Amino acid sequence: MNAAAGLKTALLCCGIFFITSNIRNVSADSYSDYFSDYDCNQPLMEHAVLTATSSLNDRGPEKARLNAGTSWSAKNSDFDQRLIIDLGYVRNVTHIALQGRPHSDEFVTEYSISYGISDLEFADYKEPGGNVKMFKGNSDGNSIHYNVFEVPIIAQWVRINPTRWHDRISMRVELYGCDYVAENLYFNGTGLVSYDLQYEPVASTRESIRFRFKTAFANGLLMYSRGTQGDYFALQLKDNKMILNLDLGSSLMTSLSVGSLLDDNVWHDVVISRNRRDIIFSVDRVIVRGRIKGEFTRLNLNRALYLGAVPNIQEGIIVTQNFTGCMENLFINSTNFVRAMKDSFEYGDAYRYTKYQTVYACPSPPIYPVTFTTRGSYVKIKGYEAQNTMNVSFYFRTYEDRGVMLHHDFASGGYVRVFLEYGKVKIDMKIGDKPRIILDNYDEQFNDGKWHSFVLAIARNRLVLDIDQRPMTTTKNIQISTGKVYYIAGGVDKNGFVGCMRLILVDGNYKLPKDWVPGEEVCCGDEVVVDACQMIDRCNPNPCQHSGVCHQNSMEFFCDCANTGYAGAVCHTSNNPLSCQAYKNVGHVNQRVNLKIDVDGSGPLEPFPVTCEFYSDGRVITTLSHSQEHTTTVDGFQEPGSFEQNIMYDANMLQIEALLNRSHTCWQRLSYSCRSSRLFNSPSEAGNFRPFSWWVSRHNQPMDYWAGALPGSRKCECGILGKCHDPTKWCNCDSNNLEWTEDGGDIREKEHLPVRAVKFGDTGTPLDEKQGRYTLGPLRCEGDDLFTNVVTFRIADATINLPPFDMGHSGDIYLEFKTTQENAVLFHATGPTDYIKLSINGGNKLQFQYQAGSGPLGVNVGTSYHLNDNKWHTVSVERNRKEARLVVDGSIKAEVREPPGPVRALHLTSDLVIGATTEYRDGYVGCIRALLLNGKMVDLKQYAMRGLYGVSADCVGRCESNPCLNNGTCIERYDGYSCDCRWSAFKGPICADEIGVNLRTSSIIRYEFEGSFRSTIAENIRVGFTTTIPKGFLLGFSSNLTGEYLTIQISNSGFLRCVFDFGFERQEIIFPKKHFGLGQYHDVRFSRKNGGSTVVLTVDNYEPVEYNFDIKASADAQFNNIQYMYIGKNESMTDGFVGCVSRVQFDDIYPLKLMFQQNPPANVKSLGTLLTEDFCGVEPVTHPPIEIETRPPPLVDEDKLRKAYGGFSVVLGIILVLLLLLLLLMVFLIGRYVHRHKGDYLTHEDEGAANADDPDEAVLHSRTGHQVTKRKEWFI
Q1: Which of 300, 503, 559, 841 is the most buried (most CB within 10 A)?
Q2: How many domains are contained in the chain?
Q3: Does this model's pTM top 0.85?
Q4: Which residues, in sequence order, are bridge partners of residue 1088?
């Protein structure tokens, strides 16, 4: 098969866009596997040249090769260090390998990559979202870590920028790939290529296209094709952005846009992948995902496929210019279109192709852009001197709103200066001694990042300013004599132009920028970049969320959040409450309020209007309106369901679903009034239900029950209750009555709400008596699960561990807390180096700390009130590309700006720990609710219901059980409690310990009311006592000023006796039901009410007894000017009470407690014998101790354990066996040594010769002589 036949098979028989079974497709979800089919894995750095921004003396860039004995180490470990690799020529780079410095802890843990065809133009490798991709690096100095490029890098120069490191920036590297073969097509602006699809039309559900292009023009058509059924495909450049317009025959155009600054004459990678109606569109790895409009999934094309231009304007094309530039390696599915076209022409089989004014090459246009990177940079170009005319022209692009673009001093005196001010181009001119002139001829702003042409021509009495081919002429008395030098982009002051220029002509002369003389014509050093436009579009993709408008300068972007409903540096934080309940929680509310709510906070759902109704019983109802709430007449629709009304709500279905899911209950009222118009045609059988009318649920399902009935019942409310007008029917309207009847009720099934449409029939004609009227009320919801999703942390090291939270470049956490703790961590998460932590400090300050690659940052919010006051407080934490933001209680805010340089994503790998640090320290005790992560609610209650250690569902403190007795105040701590007994006559841990005194007959205690004497009309008096002597004075109050008094005593008969005179007459009360002198403990309470006319006496556990007194209108029942309180007796008595008295209380005065405290006040004292404190024989009440909980041991992941140790099990077994054998051998040898033979044996050595130095000495010192026996020979 020749090349043409092969091309026909690949492109025609199956259709250019059709994916056959043996061709892999790029799916609409990911194209990461598409390039794995290519054998492109060869090392590329054998002959590469390596340089670096800095290095240590013995660790230069040439040492940065994989598996080398040492490494490249940067001299300074900062973000400005780069390793630059020159591969010699353009290569196809597919992946990278990285090592650290061997046998050390110096390695790079994260890095970014930029690449280019030359060493002047570098493009960052980006993530699909448009951010600079941060590649994961090493975890030690020896191991190799690989990263694969999803879309291969086509470049000669590769630059590695370490962004995180351990100890020092040190690395060894290898690039892998293969040679790059470029198949180019050049279009000069008048050429095109077409491929005829008429005889072999395309009908595909999936296709993929990828290619590279470069151009110096902002507009142009790259690809187009269409079919006779209305399908079309248009790929074009519009204002230096790539636009894809697509229609699958539904007459609904889907438009996607990606990329910016694409007219920079640098190569850009394009990938388009469609799978039915799902499509991804990528330029330079920045991905836009879309859903094609309409219902069709097949692309039908039967005309021609055009490249570079079309013969005439077609549907879907929005530009009028042809493409000027180069296209390279155009792959349609897996076929290289340019290669196939070349082969077809070579083999003489190119009858389907039309090629006009195009060449198989990519010539570089003579356009050399210049980048002015600082306001102090400029170039100085010579012109014709002493001329009476001048002409300067150039192209410029910038994002700055100010800066001088041109300055020239006239030889005749004066100057002309062209500058940007608020983005507008203005001219400042002064001629000789004439007044200064400011020309402002254009209303638009030119700092939009696009290329703009500029021409300034001055002649006698005439000045022409031409921007973008729109000349503005000024006629004045102008006479000039030109100077010698023209300053471009500044030069006179430090307020120069920042941006790019190209084709700079002075007086018609053009000098190539690369021929400019540094120092003489160019200032200053690297601040002017020649042959490259190094501008960055920081607004593409748009970093502003929720439709915020992005603006930028050369350093940073800004977001205009007006009319979005959101605030913050990137329009992330919602200005609207989460719900009606949230609105009520933050302040005073009226009974009814119309407002917008944002159910997912910072999430993607937009705010929508509701009506909030607040009731006195605490209920909060949210009402969502729609367009058909009025009563609507139905007449003249006889066929079932022939009348149809779709309901349009003030929110879309996603917003409504979020509201329904968060609400406790929801309902919607639907009623139908009828006259001789049937509703359900009841009764009916389940398989034969044919109603005349029905309503449609949220999921577009016709429902088989009416409002007020049960799902599946085929009934109305009256049929469920058995109250229909006709007992044989299940709906009132089914009685077919000539009188008006009604069927209605509330639909309460949340899974079916809201009503999406209503359909009616059996209403006859407009001329008969059949008629109906329906009324559909608004959707009403009550409650918010967000605020009932509450948990209590009752132990300081208790936590809820959530899955790792990918905060990335932008994320937020919202929660509400209630605590009494001064210092605690609310949440914490960590990564290898990054972390986030929110803590409460000192009870009145919240602090958010985080680290994202660089040093730690923090933002604090201090309050003038206590945050640990056991009330609910809200906190919102947001971190985005520009700042970190902390908002407390919806109004107190603080921000911290991100440091200069690339913004790094937060890399968090640990669980998001709620309630403590990841090490379970600095724990929080209290309640937390309404936890939202990026607007999504976290079901904390679900975690608590699992029986987590130290965590309970709902907000339940230790004080809920009222552990403090006798009017003691419970102070909540959630992990415990304490009791404040200051307003009690008791003491002790739970205010249950008696404070009493044993009185003898001579004992007397007096309390003096200091200052202004007290007057009362409703006293609260209490005294407890025990005695065996049935008489005595217990407690008394008196006033010498008024003569009024009150005495509580025991009578001689053992009864309780109260005598008082409050000014209206003396009264006496006897409590005769009990004898009080039997040694039992008694508790007596005396109080008054009803303006002092009723005395309430309570003794022990008896029912209170009320005594009513008739008081004349002129009488005064007030106990006036009380001066003294006596216990035991008063100063006029000789014998006092004998027994034990405790619990003495007069309103908020506790005299015994005061007397026995340390440093008692002077107004309470014992006037008789010395008294000591006593508990009067009453043992204090105690509570069971709080159950002690301990944290369970951590769960062991057996799979991870097996994975960690499984590979070493065999080796470990062998090592253990060897160690055992070695141990046995050692035991054997030691045993032989210990048990060696020690017996005596006989020698012939002389005694005493053992220490001799030689044989002669041995003989001399011998004491026994040598026993030498001469051998004898015997003959037998």
Answers
A1: 559
A2: 6
A3: no
A4: 1095
Looking at the structure, tell me whether residues 627 and 678 fall in a common domain. Answer: yes
For the chain, what is the total number of helices (H) and then of strands (E)? 11, 85
Model confidence band, residue 1242 (pLDDT cutoffs 50, 70, 90): very low
CA 757 to chain centre: 37
CB of 96 closer than 8 Å to CB of 174: yes
CATH number, domain of 1153, equals 2.60.120.200
Mean pLDDT over residues 384-401, rounded? 95
pLDDT band at 1197 (very low <50, low <70, confident <90, very high): low
Mean pLDDT on 538-556: 90
3-state secondary structure of 684: coil
* 511 and 384 within one domain: yes
Residue pair 1140/1003 in contact (Cβ under 8 Å)? The answer is: no
**CA 445 to CA 468: how far, in whole Å?**
12
**How many other C-beta atoms lie within 10 A of the C-beta of residue 667?**
19
Alpha carbons 526 and 511: distance in angstroms, whole number: 19
Q: What is the pLDDT of residue 428?
A: 95
Structure tokens at 73: 């180490």
Rounded to whole angstroms, the Cα distance separating 1249 from 1258 reads 5
How far apart are the C-alpha atoms of 271 and 292, rounded to whole Å?
A: 17
Is 1 inside any structural domain?
A: no
- Average of per-residue pLDDT values in the chain: 88
The model's confidence at residue 3, banded by pLDDT at 50, 70 and 90, is: very low
**DSSP 3-state of 484:** coil
Burial label for 838, CB within 10 Å (0-12, 13-18, 19+), is buried
Which of 530, 563, 595 is the last residue in one of the domains?
530
> Is residue 41 within 8 Å of 152, Cβ to Cβ?
no
Q: Is residue 3 part of a domain?
A: no
- Strand residues in 993-1118 grouped as ranges (E): 996-999, 1005-1008, 1014-1016, 1020-1026, 1032-1038, 1045-1050, 1056-1061, 1066-1071, 1082-1089, 1094-1099, 1105-1108
8 A C-beta contact, residue 594 and residue 583: no
919, 828 contact by CB (below 8 A): no
* Count of residues making up the chain: 1276
Cα–Cα nearest to 621, from 788, 784, 787 = 784
- Pairing between strand 951-953 and 790-793? antiparallel
| Shared-domain flag, residues 206 and 233 | yes
Dihedral angle sign, alpha carbons of residues 1196, 1199, 1200, 1202: positive
Tell me, yes or no, whether 701 and 791 share the same domain.
Answer: no
Q: Of 1083, 1087, 1080, 1041, which is closest to residue 1060 (Cα–Cα)?
A: 1087
Helix axes 1198-1206, 1209-1234, angle to 10 degrees: 60
Host domain of residue 944: 786-953
Question: By three-state DSSP, how is residue 1214 classified?
Answer: helix
Q: How far apart, in whole angstroms, are the C-alpha atoms of residue 206 and residue 25?
A: 8
Residue from 537, 556, 484 nearest 903 by CA: 556
In 3D space, the residue among 602, 624, 510 whose CA is nearest the CA of residue 548 turns out to be 602
Q: What is the distance between the alpha carbons of residues 836 and 849, in angstroms, rounded to a whole number?
A: 6
Q: What type of residue sits at position 164?
A: R
In this prediction, residues 532-551 reach a mean pLDDT of 89
Confidence of residue 14 (pLDDT cuts 50, 70, 90): very low
Nearest one of 1050, 1026, 1029, 1021 to 1125, comparing CA atoms: 1021
In a domain, 1254, yes or no: no
Give which of 404, 417, 375, 369 is closest to 523, Cα–Cα: 375
Rg of the chain over all Cα atoms, to the nearest angstrom = 47
What are the residues whose beta carbons fall under 8 Å from the beta carbon of 111, sequence distance 6 or more? Answer: 98, 134, 135, 137, 160, 161, 162, 163, 164
pLDDT value of position 798? 93
Of 95, 85, 102, the residue nearest 161 (C-alpha):
85
- Coarse DSSP helix, strand, coil percentages of the chain, rounded to the nearest 5 percent: 10, 40, 50
Which DSSP helix (H) or strand (E) runs through 175? Answer: strand 170-179
Distances 106 to 65, 66, 70 between C-alpha atoms, Å:
15, 15, 11
Instruction: Round to whole Å and give the CA distance between 353 and 344.
Output: 9
